[in-house]
Give the backbone structure.
Amino acid sequence: MPLLGTALCGASVGWLAWNYWRTNRGTRRQRPPALWGLLGLLLIALAAALAALRVGAVLLYLTPLFWTGYILAIDSAVWSVRGRSLVASEPRAFAWMALLSIPLWLIFEAYNLRLRNWQYVGLPRNAAPRLLGYLWSFATIWPAVLETADFLLATQFRERPARPLALPPRPLILVGLFLMILPLVLPAAAGSYLFGSAWLGFAFLLDPLNYQARGSSILGDFSRGSRRRLWALLAAGGVCGFLWEFCNYWATAKWIYIFPIGQGAKIFEMPAAGFLGFPAFAVEVFSLYVYVTGRLRVPYYEVG
């Protein structure tokens, strides 16, 4: 259903644009988009035009080209609203986020070696361009999700105090361990149905550990009566999910899903039910980022 998927992508982009316009409308603090944002939009437009002309190199690297442009554009929008952003204000944190995105995504590639939920097709035969595509694409994952969440926190999800909620960390940690281990100890044929367990496990495990270490966490937000970061992450995962699958559908080097659920009802290459995993993945992206940067003591960017 590429038409439905394209409509959903258009709605997602339209929602982001509306949030930006609504936030900046009539404010004296309004700043024009920064140069790097305009360059990002130009990169997206150029990639789309060349892809429509079936330029082979562009179709091969369509996904990382789009996401590079998107990250620059969304960061520029955050800067325009707030006067600070990841790229503009903390370039070292941005470089570390992109670098860490590669090994962090490889964790899920390792799960996939056993669970066989997706596979890559149309890759270059030569190792060098194939490796470039992998590294470039993987490096955009964490910045794309967290920049989108940061934008939504700056525009849509303002603070609305709620009742503080204190959740005990230890039971959640045990739930996370169970979810992470379960698909690995079951027979592969059964585990292939449970990749959703991996999408949830790291968040349940690491967010309580981040909370105990006094780092940024959803549990910490809840204890202060805040829900905004959770909602922004969930929404960012949904937006990025539609955009990922849109780019992937038109690229020549792509991933296809082979898990045994919902293959008869697809939006782009993804079975429709699989889109439910993207919001959960965004929370996991946040938890992994906080945990790893805290342990490595590298420059960290506070989303929100």
